[in-house]
Amino acid sequence: MSEIIAKRVSNYELFYDLVFVLATSSLTGLLHGNHIGLREILTFITANLIIMTLWINETIYLNKYGERDLLDIITIIASMFVVGQLSLNFSHDFEATALPFTIFLTLSYLLLCLQYYLRGRKIGFTADMKHSLYMFGIYLLVFFLALVAIYFNFWTYDEKSLLLFYLPFIISYFFKDKLSHDVMNFPHIVERCQLITIITFGETVIAILKNYPILELPLEGILLFFAMATLFIFYISQTYLTIDHHRKADATVLLYAHLVIVLGLNFFTVAMELFPSHHNDFWPCPC
């Protein structure tokens, strides 16, 4: 494969990632209840996938068509605000938060569509842009119909309602051969994946340091911090040293792998927060 020049990660992309500090904190908070059952775990997994899918789709747009111009600046800042509001509505109480959550999720994809549309108006609509707009347009239609159902109380507020948020994965499958990977800058994607993973590791660092202070739990604190640091070293060795960044490659596998990596790290963070407390007693006493 031919060597390619890395697209530089802009300061606005780094700024955009800041809102995912709040998102990560809100996600781990989903498992901080008196009871952790199937509903709570499914909600946690679904919320992780929703927020990471938004990040991935925004990253792909900026990778392919981002120009660091006024269009990108305004839409990135608007997207940050909407994603932040979305993060504040992660909850197990579906009936209380379903409407605002779906509104902000719909707005997030509306902004993404707007980015593709306005960029297409400036540089011309490629086949990839058109197919991306078709795909995100279907997302918008699905979420808008869900909004109508929630507003008029035609909605089920149980675990089955979570299936709605998996539809984008099914929809995107039918577009996988229509979206172009040739215009993607692989080293830029690798760097962006590293940055979001570092943000997620940051929440893990805070969880260990806060819950295992060395003056109270020296052995556990040192061992867990070392284990976390070892995970980070292994991750960096795989993504920074092992991967050939300067090549033309399909980044799809890398992006989906980071869905799993971030989800796993968030589970690890929750464990670090729950183990020192009484919440680690998941099973009722038989007596």
UniProtKB/TrEMBL annotation:
Signal sequence range: none
Positions of transmembrane segments: 12-31, 37-57, 69-88, 94-112, 133-154, 221-241, 253-272
Family matches, as InterPro entries: Low_temperature_requirement_A
Record's keyword terms, sorted: Membrane, Transmembrane, Transmembrane helix
A Pfam family matched in the record: LtrA
The protein's name in its UniProt record: Putative low temperature requirement A protein
Organism listed in the record: Streptococcus suis
Phylogenetic lineage: Bacteria, Bacillati, Bacillota, Bacilli, Lactobacillales
